[in-house]
Amino acid sequence: MAGLVMPEPKADILARRAQIIADLRAIVPGEGVIDTETEMRPFESDGVTAYRQMPLTVVLPSTTEQVSQVLAYAHANGIPVVPRGAGTSLSGGALPLADGILLGMGKFNRILDIDFANRTVVAQPGVTNLGITTAVAHEGFYYAPDPSSQIACTIGGNVGENSGGVHCLKYGLTTNNVLGVEMVLITGEIIRIGGQHLDSGGLDLLGLIVGSEGLLGVVTEVTVRILKKPETARAVLMGFPSSEAAGACVAAIIAAGIIPGGMEMMDRMMIHASEAFVNVGYPLDVEALLIVELDGPEAEVNHLIERVGEIGNGLGCLTLRASTSEEERIAFWAGRKAAFPAVGRISPDYLCMDGTIPRKALPEVLSRMEQMSEKYGLRCGNVFHAGDGNLHPLICYDANKPGELEKAEAFGADILLLCVEVGGVLTGEHGVGVEKRDLMGSMFDETDLAHQQRLKCAFDPNSLLNPGKVFPQLHRCAELGRMHVSGGKLPFPDIPRF
Ligand SMILES: Cc1cc2nc3c(=O)[nH]c(=O)nc-3n(C[C@H](O)[C@H](O)[C@H](O)COP(=O)(O)OP(=O)(O)OC[C@H]3O[C@@H](n4cnc5c(N)ncnc54)[C@H](O)[C@@H]3O)c2cc1C
After folding, report:
1. Is the domain of 243 the same as that of 224?
2. I want to staple 342 with a disulfide (CB 3.0 to 4.6 A). Which of 210, 274, 394, 407 is the partner?
3. Which residues of the chain fall short of a pLDDT of 50?
4. Whether residue 204 is found in the same domain as residue 300
5. Hey, what's the signal peptide range on this chain (predicted)?
6. How many Cα atoms occupy the beta-carbon half-sphere of 497 within 13 Å?
């Protein structure tokens, strides 16, 4: 694994492998424990295929009671556990550990309750994101957060990463659409947080769980809110002579008080790659393309389409096309949704980055990324959740050329540091995982990190759940109480210590 330092596997756990597998088989009988190399191979990586690691064993429980027993066993025996949904994480969140149990939640694939009156669905964590919408579509409802991976990724993984999608500008990320969870702690205790109501008493622990990347517990049930499908949705395609002009249009639309259902930007390289892949009629003679979707009552949508067109024309828009049918609207989105596989056709490998910037910083960030592209000698295309300021630069490289992966990783790290420098953050929706773990120090100082780590320790004092992810190495519960003494001098000697 290029440049990636993971916690050293514990020799005593590796030596006990046969006994551990036998004990786990007693908890999850039948085909629930996988231990052969061939059968474990599909679990060796997630969406970040550059990093691979065979786990100690794979366990596939199908009941909450089994999850509870597996975690209690891991806790009693000091064995790390990595939860996994569909394994589509783009930050290495589900990367296994050599001495750890990979806990696959794929068998938790049932919808438990649909309540149209309360507008909620209770789903097991292995249900796919799209599966929730499919289950309620017959009554005109849907689940709003729509990651491009929605056909495959699970609601449990969405909770882990606080995932987003093109419609999150108006309808919020996972955290704004999850109402409650059932979760198993590392001790095996089963807890419930939130429920089928809008708010719950006490501390906002739900906000803490969503986005916790499998570090605090294993989610075994998720309650989400569902929405009635808008009466109408129409999309506008607008081509601009520069990314700056397209960025100015995004800012002007928001400043006009319009919140589109989705607002995405693609640069020249991505427009060409996507068009060659799906042939939806994207303009090829522009530098930047905006897709703006308006949804709501028909009269309002038609009015807003006109307003957005006026704003675009006022800012030098070169081409403008509004969808006139549902098929055309879907076609407009097809290119954007296929952007990642489209890059797979023009480059043997690519790294998909995920950082967030204040919208006004877009022109500066794009031009500095171009300079970086020249410096590293690697192509970089951009798709962008423009309304949210969430960038997805796609860095093209060839893993077969020695040193190119390392170059691509360094390029990616520079982009994320730039996001922080201009007032943004390291991630928008893909999580920190292992990919951004070592950059956390660029955004948080030691005090911030120590406070975050204390929360982790309150749930999992022995760091058994997904260790090596999110926190830079050397941040372990046991080290929080330590003091670094330099040159024999105790820092802040007058402060009392207990
Ligand atoms: C082609 C492609 C497009 C993508 N597009 C988007 C996008 O538009 N927006 C977006 O946000 N993401 C996107 N992603 C990233 C990814 O799909 C999301 O992060 C998704 O939420 C991961 O879900 P998963 O089921 O695959 O989870 P996994 O990858 O298996 O796990 C993700 C994290 O959640 C934890 N986890 C999983 N299940 C549980 C559980 N039951 N309890 C506790 N922790 C758990 C894991 O430990 C890990 O840290 C994309 C990925 C790909 C490959």
Report:
1. no
2. 274
3. 481-488, 490-498
4. no
5. none
6. 8
